[in-house]
């Protein structure tokens, strides 16, 4: 049975001690010993309290300030639409149409990772290759860094509207991206039955040359999408930022629905 893609202080402690005075009527030599003992204890307490090693807060217990660093871009300047959907749902095809007609910049997280994997000078190449083969998620630091670099290049050219395809695939990716790069404007979610996507991917695999277009990898990717990406869709759905499009229909009909939804949500002129 196929998988269905549906919604659903640090505390620091201190201690102190106390000392009493010796009783009266004791022999003099005993009093001397008590005085010397008291002086030794007092010195120890003083050194303990005033020692720099104990007066400083252990750095391991200091929580990082997540708001200290501002996002790389302002959402007033740069617009980002996340494009999500299961493997083979048609994200790339629809993004290509939007780029052609409305001037969006299309950034595919998968394409960026594959390019990095094939870069002989990349220290992440083998790790990315393993993740793609196994259908698992590449560490977010790598993906977000690649996306930021690509966005910076486009912004210097005056391109400010982005479709980010296949990202974020997990909640931590979504939150980190919005904290470090820019807040998203919208999420385009392409919904499609697993059986249809499997057929599309196997057909594509005949000519694509992609190592992950085989039945074993595809099923792992389906499973990963449901377990990690659907919570992202649900998260943005609660913020009324999701456009859900049925991708079972013909490409032209799907695209017509996408244009209508964008006009409704973002007031983009889609009379083309």
TrEMBL record:
ATP binds at residues 88-93, 204, 249. A ribonucleoside 5'-phosphate binds at residues 114, 136-138, 166-169, 173, 210, 221. Residues 108-138 are annotated as: NMPbind. GO terms for biological process: 'de novo' pyrimidine nucleobase biosynthetic process; pyrimidine nucleotide biosynthetic process. Its cofactor is Mg(2+). Keywords: ATP-binding, Cytoplasm, Kinase, Nucleotide-binding, Nucleus, Pyrimidine biosynthesis, Transferase. Binds 1 Mg(2+) ion per monomer. Its EC number is 2.7.4.14. PROSITE patterns: ADENYLATE_KINASE. GO terms for molecular function: AMP kinase activity; ATP binding; UMP kinase activity. Residues 203-213 are annotated as: LID. One of its GO terms (cellular component) is nucleus. The keyword Protease does not apply. It catalyses: UMP + ATP = UDP + ADP. Its main location: cytoplasm. The keyword Kinase applies. It is found in: Cytoplasm; Nucleus. Belongs to the adenylate kinase family. UMP-CMP kinase subfamily. Catalyzes the phosphorylation of pyrimidine nucleoside monophosphates at the expense of ATP. Plays an important role in de novo pyrimidine nucleotide biosynthesis. Has preference for UMP and dUMP as phosphate acceptors, but can also use CMP, dCMP and AMP. Consists of three domains, a large central CORE domain and two small peripheral domains, NMPbind and LID, which undergo movements during catalysis. The LID domain closes over the site of phosphoryl transfer upon ATP binding. Assembling and dissambling the active center during each catalytic cycle provides an effective means to prevent ATP hydrolysis. Monomer. This is Uridylate kinase. It comes from Pachysolen tannophilus NRRL Y-2460. The gene is URA6.
């Amino acid at each position: 049975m196929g998988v269905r893609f549906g919604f659903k202080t640090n505390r620091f402690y201190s201690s102190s001690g106390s000392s009493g005075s010796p009783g009266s009527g004791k022999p003099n030599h005993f009093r001397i010993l008590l005085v010397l003992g008291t002086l030794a204890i007092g010195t120890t307490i003083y050194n303990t309290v005033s020692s720099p090693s104990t007066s400083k807060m252990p750095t391991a217990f200091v929580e990082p300030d997540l708001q200290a660093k501002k996002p790389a871009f302002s959402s007033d300047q740069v617009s980002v639409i996340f494009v999500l959907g299961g493997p083979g749902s048609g994200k790339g095809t629809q993004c290509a149409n939007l780029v052609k007609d409305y001037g969006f910049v299309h950034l595919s997280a998968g394409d960026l990772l594959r390019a990095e994997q094939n870069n002989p000078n990349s220290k992440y190449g083998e790790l990315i290759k393993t993740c793609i083969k196994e259908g698992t998620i590449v560490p977010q630091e790598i993906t977000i860094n690649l996306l930021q670099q690509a966005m910076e290049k486009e912004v210097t050219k005056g391109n400010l509207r982005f479709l980010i395809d296949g990202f974020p695939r997990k909640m931590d990716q979504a939150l980190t991206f919005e904290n470090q790069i820019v807040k998203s404007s919208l999420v385009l979610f392409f919904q499609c039955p697993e059986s249809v996507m499997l057929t599309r991917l196997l057909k594509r695999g005949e000519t694509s040359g992609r190592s992950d277009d085989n039945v074993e990898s595809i099923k792992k990717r389906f499973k990963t999408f449901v377990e990690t990406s659907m919570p992202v869709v649900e998260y943005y759905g609660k913020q009324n930022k999701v456009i859900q499009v049925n991708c079972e229909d013909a490409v032209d009909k799907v695209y017509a629905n996408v244009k209508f939804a964008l006009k409704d949500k973002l007031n983009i002129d889609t009379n083309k």
